[in-house]
Amino acid sequence: QVQLVESGGGLVQAGGSLRLSCAASGRTFSLYNMGWFRQAPGKEREFVAALSWKGGNKYYADSVKGRFTISRDNAKNTVYLQMNSLNPEDTANYYCNKDPRLYSDYLTWGQGTQVTVSS
User: Fold this and answer.
1) 71-89: per-residue pLDDT in tens?
2) pLDDT of residue 60
3) I need a labelling partner for 36 at 20 to 30 A (CA). Which of 3, 67, 70, 118 fits?
């Protein structure tokens, strides 16, 4: 059973940057295409970025394209999300999980990491 632990969130001013990490337990992690999601209060979870298990193919939602960069280090069982030029609309709890475009089931969701962007 793969467990996911997200970290790296915090409070940042508009225009600032944060780097999120998603550490996974379990040897099968490196076989999955992984993604980042976010959920703001009162809103549905939004899929924002994904990359293939080798890290080559990447996908970004229009709302984050050009500002966010997803990457992974399979040796460390970790997926990253570099977020630049943050704006208040990016405020949400951020989670990682399997790429929903490829898989119909999810790993157990972690607690997420809160990102708050002040204007």
Assistant:
1) 999 999 999 999 999 999 9
2) 98
3) 118
